[in-house]
Amino acid sequence: MTFFKNYALFLSSVFAALLISGCASSGPKYIDLAYTGHPGSGSTGTLGISRFADLRSGFTKGGLGHRVLNDKSKEVFLVQGLDLAGTLTDVTQVYLERKGFKVTPVPAWTPTLEGLSETGTGKDLLVTGNINACECRAVKKGAITEMTLEIDLTLFLAAPAGKKLTTIPVALTLERTDVNFTRKKVAAFFNETLAEVFEKALPFDQN
Fold first, then answer.
1. Residue 202: C-alpha distances to residues 71, 159, 188, 197 (Å)
2. How far apart are CA 78 and CA 83, in angstroms?
3. Do 75 and 26 form a contact (C-beta atoms < 8 A)?
């Protein structure tokens, strides 16, 4: 009888430990970044998009942050494809296409008036950007996870024919607390924020 009592106590302890840990395990977690918004369409014209430049320091090309677990080990967040600059370029292109533009990739150009004068794409508009920060820092505390998302982009919108260049800085830090943390929740946090960034930074209301 004592054996069964001790065994039951052992199982209860294991079960409690699993609840506290949330069955979390350290290692890489791959995040799917995508444009998930629904912008108003109606924009027209041709638009060339150039690959964004990843200017972050201390990150690999695919790094997106990490989560510290209860045992102080870390889950590392990585973008699917391990190329944040390419992924954010693609996400921006999807947004612009849903706005109504005919979007095609174009070679990189220096985002200055001098650099703009040297382009010969024949597009109505050009877009590119710099990634200064794009990171989710998370900490697991018992059954909850506290997340901080930092996004800092510099977008460049140019009209080659009019020799007009607009620099659009976007920087924000958001916090969120989640129970039952999942990789999909991290992706949703990123994607909802990116959708809001593009819809406010590149609204094209004039069209």
1. 43, 14, 21, 8
2. 9
3. yes
| pTM of this structure | 0.86
The single-letter code of the amino acid at 22 is G
**Tens of pLDDT, residues 115-139:** 998 887 899 999 999 999 999 999 9
Task: Give the 3-state secondary structure of the chain.
Answer: CHHHHHHHHHHHHHHHHHHHHCCCCCEEEEECCCCCCCCCCCCCCEEEECCCEECCCCCCCCEEEEEECCCCCEEEEEECCCCHHHHHHHHHHHHHHHHCCEEEECCCCCCCHHHHHCCCCCCCEEEEEEEEEEEEEEEEECCEEEEEEEEEEEEEEEECCCCEEEEEEEEEEEEEEEECCCHHHHHHHHHHHHHHHHHHHCCCCCC
End-to-end CA, the chain: 80
Using pLDDT thresholds of 50, 70 and 90, give the confidence band for residue 17. very low
Inter-residue contact 75 to 139 (CB < 8 Å): no
Residue 170 CA to residue 5 CA, distance in Å, equals 60
